Amino acid sequence: MMDMTRRSMLAGATALLATGAARAASGGTITRFDPELDRLIDPASPIEVIATGYRWAEGPVWVKRGGYLLFSDVPANIVYRWTRGEGAAPFLQPSGLAGPIPAGIREAGANGLAIDHSGALILADSGTRAIARVDLATRRKTILADRFEGKRFNSCNDVAIARDGAIYFTDPPYGLAEGDSSPLKELPFNGVYRLSPTGEVAVIDRSLRRPNGVALSPRGDRLYVACSDEEAPEIRVYDLAADGAARGPGRRLVDFSAEDARRLPGLPDGMKVARSGHLFASGPGGLYVIAPDGRKLGLIAVGKAIANCTFGEDGRTLFMTASDSVLRLRLNMAV
Is the peptide bond before 94 cis (omega within 30 degrees of 0)? Predict the structure, then answer.
């Protein structure tokens, strides 16, 4: 989730990268930067809008047991459920903070979503300022962690689940009305964390100004963190040890400063990693397809910021949340 002032301005922008772009049926474009893109996406494939009318769509996740998509409308405090036959309808309301919303909370709803190994829904609950689990059958919610060293999190933003069940998550201040200067902010930093399967919270990085999207490599040995920092818009990568801890301070994998300088819509935000190791990552201009070594292979652009994505259906569908809409794109291979 990016800063609301910049988001509001960029969400309506229509600047697109044009060189080598193929126009899709929805009016979006898929731009090939490298022939390697063709393995994953046909640049002539249509981009389909499957749901629209939201305040800020985020956090899509495909639920295999049941065959449906869940996604967040963070400001509206709702998680929606989408199916082919029925479209989208509220699934969790409220998705985040329940009861009266304090003036200091800007975004009361859940943000990033994931499905854990038991089939439960894991929420980065921005409004409650916690990581939570929801039983999809009963919709009962359990708080897993809401503090680090006794201090409340800022506004948990995105989650990724490791093979051992550990949850990696980011905690920028976007859900607080006054951001870093909010009187509700208890931690002096905006962290990247690991929540162990036994409930311990450890910090991975406390140096980032705006940590946002988070994802893991297929082998679980690399952690990716998107930085929605206008001063350093990038994706960073951390090598992970066998116990899940970072082996160092991390390094820049992808630099988006040139695209941000062109005022293309969006900043580095949500991302997912294919089994091939390719990243599908939001950035200025839309959603980028990125090789494991950091090369930008292509760009999916729809004229506004794309916040996040996920893979679903038969593994060959890419779902994207873009401002007020949810979109679907068929891929060339199951990822």
Answer: yes
Residue 161 lies in a domain: yes
Q: What DSSP designation does 10 have? A: H
Token code pair at residue 201: 């919270």
pLDDT at 27: 55
Range of the domain at 142: 4-330
The DSSP letter of residue 269 is -
Q: Where are the alpha helices (DSSP H) in the chain?
A: 4-11, 257-261
Residue 335 lies in a domain: no
Q: Residue 114: which CATH number?
A: 2.120.10.30
In sequence order, the 6+-apart residues with CB closer than 8 A to the CB of 99 are none
Count of domains for the chain = 1
Checking if the pLDDT of 9 tops 60, the result is: no
- What global pTM score does this model have? 0.92
Q: Which residue has the tokens 């607080």?
A: 176
Which residue has 């206008």 as its token pair? 230
**Dihedral sign of CA atoms 174, 180, 182, 183 in order:** positive
